[in-house]
Structure formats: structure tokens, C-alpha cells
Amino acid sequence: MELSQQITQLFILAIPIACIAWTVTREEIFKEQREFCIEKSKSCKTMFQRKFFYLFTCEYCFSHYVTILFLFITKFHLLYEGWRGYLISGFALVWVANVYMSIFGFIRVGMKKEKMDADIEELKLKREKEK
Predict the structure, then answer these.
(1) Rounded mean pLDDT of 104-127?
(2) Treating both helix axes as pointing N-terminal to C-terminal, what angle do 59-74 and 83-130 enclose, rounded to 10 degrees?
(3) In 47, 70, 104, 128, which residue has its Cα 20 to 30 A from 22's Cα atom?
(4) CB atoms < 10 A from the CB of 14, how many?
């Protein structure tokens, strides 16, 4: 496969990896499970257990496991055939997925700030009308 096709696949495959990792570690739908994992990551007796539960609370950590799953499903490799290509593609996918998540997080913070500003303005208008 040509390098341009591999790069295209890299940037496309990183999208669902980022989406899954972000959803599991940040979104409301998995809040209860995440809180359970946070508690277990602090209270379990063995280091292995604590690290196992921690991986469900960290988008960077979790993205490695999602990437491994995607490599298994897609057989995507980058630059080389065999294990070297899988190793390179694995770390490249994790990196690109985390860039995507960082950008998404930055956008979300901006959106939350704008919503908070709008809510404050709305409250000010209501107070002025009440006077």
C-alpha cells in the first residue's frame, strides 16, 4: 500500500479510536462506571488492580487499548509489514487520536465558556426586568 494511503488510513482510524476513548472516559453516559473505576483505582489492594481500573478513567491510557483492538480488527500497519508496522501504527494511532481528543477538549471548554457567558447575560436580563 502506498504511503499516502497509509497516512490517510492513520488519520481516519484515529477518529473512532478518539471517539470511543473520549466517550468512555469523559461523557455522562459512562459516569457511574467511571466513578466506580475511580474509586477502585484508589482503593484496590494490588497495584495491578488499581492500574486496571485506572485505565478506564484516563483517555490517554484507554486509547492504547482501543488502538490494540482496532489493530486486531483492521490489520492496519504503517511503513513496514509485520510486527514492526503494527508497532509503529499503534503508537501513531494513539498519538493522532490524542491530538484529536485534545482539540475536542479545547473546543468543548470554549463552548462551555460561551454557554456560561450566555447564562450570565440571561440572568442579568431577568434581574433587570424584575426591577
Answers:
(1) 82
(2) 130
(3) 47
(4) 23
**SS3 at position 66:** helix
Our measurement of the distance from residue 93's CA atom to the centroid of its chain's CA atoms, rounded to an integer in Å, reads 12
Tell me the three cell numbers of residue 118: 450566555
What are the grid coordinates assigned to 19, written together? Answer: 471517539
Question: How many CB atoms are closer than 10 A to CB 57?
Answer: 19
Residue 101 buriedness (CB in 10 A; 0-12 / 13-18 / 19+): buried
Long-range Cβ contact pairs of 94-97 (< 8 A, separation 24 or more): 94/17, 94/60, 94/63, 94/64, 94/67, 96/10, 96/11, 96/14, 96/18, 97/14, 97/15, 97/17, 97/18, 97/21, 97/63, 97/66, 97/67
Grid cell digits, residue 117: 457567558
- Residue matched to cell numbers 424584575: 130
pLDDT digits (tens, 9 = 90+) for 62-80: 999 999 999 999 999 999 9
